[in-house]
Amino acid sequence: MACEAHHVDEMQGTRTMSYGFEDFQRFQKDQLDTVVKSVGAYNKGLQAIAVEIADYSKKSYEESAATAEKLFGARTMDKALEIQTAFARSSYEGLVAEMTKLGELYVDLAKEAVKPYEGALGKAAAPKA
Fold first, then answer.
1. Where along the chain do its domains lie?
2. Using CA atoms, how far apart are residues 113 and 67, in angstroms rounded to an integer?
3. How far apart are CA 41 and CA 47, in angstroms?
4. 19-53: per-residue pLDDT in tens?
5. Which stretches make up the Phasin domain (predicted)?
6. How sure is the predictor about 69, in pLDDT bands with cuts at 50, 70 and 90?
7. Rg of the Cα trace of the chain?
């Protein structure tokens, strides 16, 4: 009788250990999925930022080249000063707008990269049935 009880205890212990191992595997898989989703969101955000910077750089270069042409064609110092002042003003306004836009892109990147972890934390904190 004692031997049978011991055998039943061993079987239950093995089953419990098996469930523990399966839970651990599921946890590891969930963690890996979370990291993959986060890295994907991070990469997508970085790509959007890189495209935005490239577009701004191209636009800025084109505006600088156009201003240089205008400056070379200026007949008077007053006209050259007017061209340069307008360029400085529009460049500053463009830079401020671009930095605002980039700031928003970085905030979006951070939010999207963290979302998978929020779901994982919610799942981990949920009571088990």
1. 35-124
2. 40
3. 10
4. 677 877 887 888 889 999 999 999 999 999 999 99
5. 22-118
6. very high
7. 31
